[in-house]
Write a structure and sequence with these properties.
single chain; alpha/beta; Rossmann fold; 5-stranded mixed beta sheet; 14 strands
Length: 333
């Protein structure tokens, strides 16, 4: 265990180098689209008048004949994507998450999921860190409304590199996929060699006092919290749960058995997201352990800078440190 702790300490120290690169997860999406487009001529991209912001524009510049600008017509875009998929294409639908799956949820449910159509939905600008755009554009409910749909795979990558890999993985599997990514730049702490597989979580640090299970860019905040806690002698296992559905129940169970206390973290409403999925897994499969939820506290967001909003609503590294202290206290009774 000591050697594991020492290796973990060095890993976290390396991750927090001052010169760590920063890119938006949407940039990884743009990179991935261009790459899968080169690999498979059946890949097409549909966009809802947001090609620059979603980085779908990068695909259009390379493959204009396989790019469809649908305009502000998200319901129609979902139906078009379903038709293309049923004709043998692999359509990626690019817009903001508040519009897809928000505005067109009925079409996603019936035209795509009911038919198990091979459509890849991409929700940009997800989470509170959209910042100045405010509550109307901060998708905080999208995991809840996608993971409930039969046949749907739900992925929330942690950084730009993992997002690039997720695009490749989404293109290779059959059936509906929802990819969730953010607007602002965040640290890129995974590498091209870091493994990524749909349905498999990634254990980033070891620890036996508590486990943090997170998805999206907030995973980096979990690593920062683990670093701070390690200085106090508290060992935290940080898990990148990029695939929210299907969930890696085995990794969740092992973390619960080994640590006896779980914290979940996400830029999403407290209800219905990753935290709820983890709680469902633990109560149905065991073990039942104390769990703390770091998420949006049943509230709409507001305009502000990303870091300010994350701190204000209790979704930053400090909030995670406090949650770990609370859950350990509950464990000890």
């Amino acid at each position: 265990m000591l050697m594991k702790a020492l290796r973990t300490a060095r890993l976290v120290e390396t991750l927090f180098a001052k010169d760590i690169a920063q890119r938006a997860t949407r940039d990884g999406y743009g990179d991935g689209l261009v790459e899968v487009g080169a690999k498979n001529p059946n890949v097409v991209v549909l966009c809802g008048d947001l090609k620059e912001s979603t980085r779908a524009e990068w695909f259009e510049k390379k493959y204009p004949e396989r790019f469809v600008e649908c305009g502000i017509s998200e319901q129609n875009m979902a139906a078009m994507a379903a038709g293309l998929a049923l004709s043998g294409k692999i359509p990626f639908v690019a817009t903001y998450a508040v519009f897809c799956p928000g505005r067109n949820w009925d079409q996603v449910r019936i035209s795509i999921c009911y038919q198990n159509a091979n459509v890849k939905l991409s929700g940009a600008h997800a989470g509170i860190s959209v910042g100045p755009d405010g509550a109307t554009h901060q998708a905080m409910e999208d995991i809840a409304i996608t993971r409930v749909l039969p046949n749907m795979t739900v992925i929330a990558p942690c950084d730009a590199e993992e997002t690039r890999k997720a695009v490749h993985a989404a293109a290779e599997i059959r059936g509906p996929v929802y990819l969730r990514f953010a607007r602002h730049k965040t640290p890129v702490f995974t590498t091209p060699k870091t493994p990524f597989r749909i349905g498999k979580a990634l254990v980033l640090t070891e620890g036996s006092d508590a486990g943090i299970i997170a998805c999206g860019p907030i995973v980096y905040s979990a690593l920062e919290a683990a670093r701070q806690l390690s200085e106090k002698g508290i060992g935290v296992r940080v898990i990148d749960m990029a695939t929210v559905k299907p969930l890696d129940g085995a990794t969740i169970q092992k973390a619960a058995w080994d640590t006896g206390a779980i914290v979940t973290a996400e830029e999403h409403q407290r209800h219905g997201g990753l935290g709820g999925a983890v709680a469902e897994a633990l109560t149905s499969q065991g073990p039942v352990v104390p769990q703390e939820f770091v998420a949006m506290p049943d509230h709409f967001g507001e305009s502000g800078q990303p870091d300010e909003l994350l701190a204000h609503y209790g979704m930053d590294a400090d909030a995670l440190v406090a949650a770990v202290h609370r859950v350990i206290k509950r464990k000890r009774g």
